[in-house]
Structure formats: C-alpha cells, structure tokens
Design brief:
By secondary structure, the protein is α/β, with parallel strands linked by helices. It is built from seven helices and eight strands. The protein is globular. Keywords: Disulfide bond, Hydrolase, Membrane, Serine esterase, Transmembrane, Transmembrane helix.
C-alpha cells in the first residue's frame, strides 16, 4: 500500500505540469490570433449617374510588405520604412497624375511577422494578427471610398504580406462578396504573393515551377502562423485582370508544391533552405521581367499608369 501511495504522489505533480502546459499553449494560440473567415459584404445599390467633384476618377490602393508599414503611417506620404518596395510603384504614380485623376493610397497597417517559436517572444505582432489588421484596413478604406464615390474605379497592388492581403481582397471582390463591385476594378498587381497559384491570374516575367509558401505549407498551424492554402476559385471575376510577379527561387512565392507531404520531403528539403535568409525576396527593385530590362517595380508602375490612362472619367456634380 505504501508503494501505491508513493506512485500516486508522483503522478499528481506531473498532472499539474501537464494542465499548466495545456493552458499556456492554449493561451498562446489565442493571443497569437487566427486568420478570420471572410465576412460577406452586401451588394451595393444601383450607382448614380454622377458623383461628388471631390472624388478621384481612379483610386490606387497599395499594400506594403512585412516591416514596410505601420498602423500610424501617413497613407499619402508613407515614412515608416523609407526603403519600402511599394514606394517605387506609388511615387511615380503620384508624380505622374493629379490626385483628381488618380488618388494613391498606401494602406497603413502593423505589417509584422513574429517568430512563433521565439523564446522569449520577439515583441512582434503575429502574421495572423498583422494580416487580419491589414485586410480589415484595406476593406474599410475601400468601403468608405465606394460609399462616397460610387463611380470611382480601382487599381489594387501589393508586395509580399501586402500581396497576400491584396490578393485576398481581390478574391472576395471577384466572387461578389467584396468591398467594391468587380466591374470597378481595373486591375490587380501582386509582387511575391505568398498564396500564388499558377492556375490563376497572369504571370509577368519568367515562369516559376513552385507555388506560394501558403500553398507549399498548407495545413501548417503554429501560434499566430496559419498557412491557409490556395484561394478557392482564384480571383473569380478578376482572374483576367490580375497580374503576378515572382522571382525564381523566392521561397515566398516560388516554394515547392506540397512540401509537407512525406513523399515530397527529399525533393523539397533543399528548396526549403531558401526560406532562411532569402536574398531574392528583397531584390524586386532590380529583378528584370522582360528583355528590355524593365524591373518588377517599374513594370508595376507602368502597368498601373496605363490602367489609369485608359480609365473612364465619371461625371461629377
């Protein structure tokens, strides 16, 4: 009897440790956040015949990548990161067009990506929380602009985490549940989209064999880091108006397909090393997408300018 009591005495501290560990891990997941499910947005009423004179003909919405924005940044003069890649797209557009023709808005959001297994925590917002905040900020701006300016048309563009957000927003617009009607979107331009699916949209520059990291690692769930896989249906009605740029060996958009499948481990392992210290991902200002030497950011700025030039001029009142 004494030996049995001793065993029970040893089990009690172990059970307490297991319960505490479960509570800590559960709280970790809750605080790190989850990717929210899309909220369907009701259809807009029939558009009027004119809109206020203060409304731009075209609204450009640009979404920077990780560590290239902040929630308090100035959307018309972003300074959170002076080296932000998207500045090489937005500044040329601001210089070329009067704001009455094209209003260029850079979405301010947290734009962080914490290491989910860092001990101690690195103090960054999780990818899930950052992505959710960026998506909400983008949709909020689009809905407000469309309510004020129902005839304004749109160009959406983004880089890296910003490309994931822009692509997700475009996908919801394309399936009819987004913040603005699909027929008002002139085009969507994505650089290094982490949910890039070669089956949807148009490829600019060299073709790459891989897929976005979120497709490659589909099903991976760590605290605050959820790989959400492909966008069902791609970009819907915006598939033909969506353009993707991805540099070969950029592990964010050119990762091995189904890398977590055990049958692919041997072939995927060498390529997964590209996720660590990935220099290609930071080189889109010099990555050339055509024989003329046009870089990714130059192409995106020129493409957006062409869309703006060809956009309708709505009546104003």
């Amino acid at each position: 009897m004494a030996r049995s009591g001793k065993r029970r005495g040893c089990l009690i501290p172990l059970l307490i440790i297991l319960v505490v560990a479960a509570v800590v891990i559960g709280g970790w997941y809750i605080l790190a956040g989850r990717v929210p499910s899309p909220t369907p947005i009701p259809p807009s009423p029939e558009p009027p015949v004119s809109q206020p004179a203060s409304c731009p003909d075209v609204q450009v919405v640009a979404i920077p990548g990780t560590w290239e924005s902040s929630a308090t940044d100035d959307p018309y003069n972003p300074t959170a990161n002076p080296a932000s890649l998207m500045l090489n797209v937005t500044r040329p557009l601001q210089e070329k067009f009067d704001s009455s023709r094209a209003d260029v808005y850079t979405v301010p959001y947290v734009a962080q990506f914490s290491n989910p297994v860092a001990i101690p925590p690195d103090g960054q917002q999780s990818y899930n929380n950052s992505r959710a905040a960026g998506t909400a900020a983008t949709n909020d701006f689009l809905m407000k602009r469309h309510a004020e300016c129902p005839l304004t048309s749109y160009v959406l563009t983004g880089f890296s985490q910003g490309a994931v957000i822009a692509g997700d927003v475009a996908a919801s617009i394309g399936d009819g549940t987004g913040a603005v009607p699909a027929d008002l979107v002139l085009g969507v331009g994505l650089i290094a989209d982490g949910r890039r699916d070669p089956a949807f949209g148009n490829t600019v520059g060299p073709s790459v064999a891989g897929v976005g990291a979120e497709l490659s690692l589909n099903g991976l769930k760590l605290p605050g880091l959820t790989m959400t896989g492909p966008r069902p249906g791609g970009f819907g009605d915006l598939n033909d108006r969506t353009y993707q740029i991805c540099a070969p060996s950029d592990g964010i958009c050119d990762a091995p397909a189904a890398a977590l499948n055990p049958t692919n481990w041997l072939s995927s392992a060498p390529r997964l090393l590209e996720y660590y210290n990935n220099p290609v991902h930071a080189m889109y200002n010099s990555f050339q997408v055509d024989p003329n030497g046009t870089t990714a950011t130059q192409w995106m700025a020129q493409w957006a300018a062409e869309k703006i030039d060809a956009a309708p001029t709505p009546p104003h009142s």
